[in-house]
Fold this sequence. Notes:
single chain, Arc Repressor Mutant, subunit A, alpha+beta, transcription, 3 strands, transcription regulation, HTH_ArsR_DNA-bd_dom, DNA-binding
Amino acid sequence: xxxxxxxxxxxxxxxxxxxxxxxxxxxxxxxxxxxxxxxxxxxxxxxxxxxxxxxxxxxxxxxxxxxxxxxxxxxxxxxxxxxxxxxxxxxxxxxxxxxx
Length: 100
């Protein structure tokens, strides 16, 4: 992991809600309602559920999720018009190792 990516991830994590999103996505079945369109969390959690749990505006959460996906913290999967996000554990592990 290079210093530029570490800096981008650090900027992303300088926001409490973004950290909360990563925490929620550790155990999606415990933190979000069951999906109506698919019966598993293999592709992550629908952005709508993340937005609803956060209590922030849809545009704010959309911006947060996009930034987190761009720096590699989240993986985006689309099912039709729905966007699903899950943690990119590999990048999170690399980031924490770099900081050690």
